[in-house]
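Q: My labmate handed me this sequence with no annotations at all. I'd like to see what the chain might look like in three dimensions before we decide whether it's worth expressing. Could you predict it?
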Amino acid sequence: MESKLLLQLRFLQVTVLLLLIVTAALCVNLRYPFIPQRVNVLDAREIHIRERDGTLKAVLSNSEGFSKIGESRREGVPFSGLMFYNQEGDEEGGLVYSGKAIPGGQDADVTLTFDQYRQDQNIYLHHEEHKDAQARSIDDGLTIISRPDQTQVKEEYATYAAMDKLSGDALEGLKLKSLQEGKISTRRLFVGDRRGVKGNVAYDDAGLFIKNRWGRDAIKLYVDYDNKPHLEVYDPLGKSVVYELKLQK
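A: Here is what I predict for the chain of 249 residues:
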């Protein structure tokens, strides 16, 4: 009887020891995985990808998570997606998307962005559409924006703040001067298709649209709604055409 109890006690001790070892291994595996984790379905609001030192490299998140990303807090962010970060943990761009039905149509956006170092996006591939009772517009294409160096960001946004207080000729004067001095950002190139209805008039321009350093139209090469090709070259202020391709009828 005594030997039987001793045997049962030994068995219990071994079982407890094995359970302790397995539990410890599972706890270690949670922090330092040595067994690949495989799941069929992962239901999450946010997923963060980090380096071994904890540096954030990517975030896959819902719209609530996007409102908390970065130093500022943005309420009511409509988009979700994937954001990328550099070795310093600064945002470098990402893939974002949104879309919903609105009265008279829809409002949707899908964009892949690439950011300048410690700046905002300067290259982005996008689909943007908006339709309501008054108008309809769709933009599909590649856009390139020229921005000041990251060391000039404070001066850049101070200039935007000053522009917000102006209007008319004063606003245009400050904007042109700031562009000439390279203090603010400007769209330099768009390659793609812009189509829709504005003022009950349909338009559909597909082509190459180039602006100069001052943000003024420089060259347009496109095909319009009537399938007519255009080649237009503008003056430095983008106010008049200095060359236009004339096609024979």
